[in-house]
Write a structure and sequence with these properties.
The protein has strands at about 5-15, 20-30, 35-40, 50-55, 60-65. It is mainly β and about 70 residues long. A hairpin with a 5-residue loop joins strand 4 (about 50-55) and strand 5.
């Protein structure tokens, strides 16, 4: 185990597909703290993600490589 990475204690699957998965993990951080809500995005294939934020800190997320959303959005 890499001592600089959180240790997985429990996992709740929020969404899974062939292209992207979203998990809500309970983890133990390297300093010993436990977090009940550590969100993790997993891309099983090569892909690109972009988080766009405007000057009002309003955000949107776009990703490429998803066959169901028109490709390189």
């Amino acid at each position: 185990m890499n001592d600089s990475m959180p240790m997985l204690l429990d996992r709740k699957v929020i969404y899974e597909s062939d292209w992207v998965s979203l998990y809500c993990d309970r983890v133990r951080m390297p300093d010993g703290r436990e977090l009940d809500s550590y969100h993790r995005l997993h891309y099983p294939h090569e892909s690109v993600s972009v988080v766009i934020v405007n000057e009002r800190s309003e955000g949107d997320t776009h990703h490429g490589g998803c066959g169901n959303c028109g490709g390189d959005e």
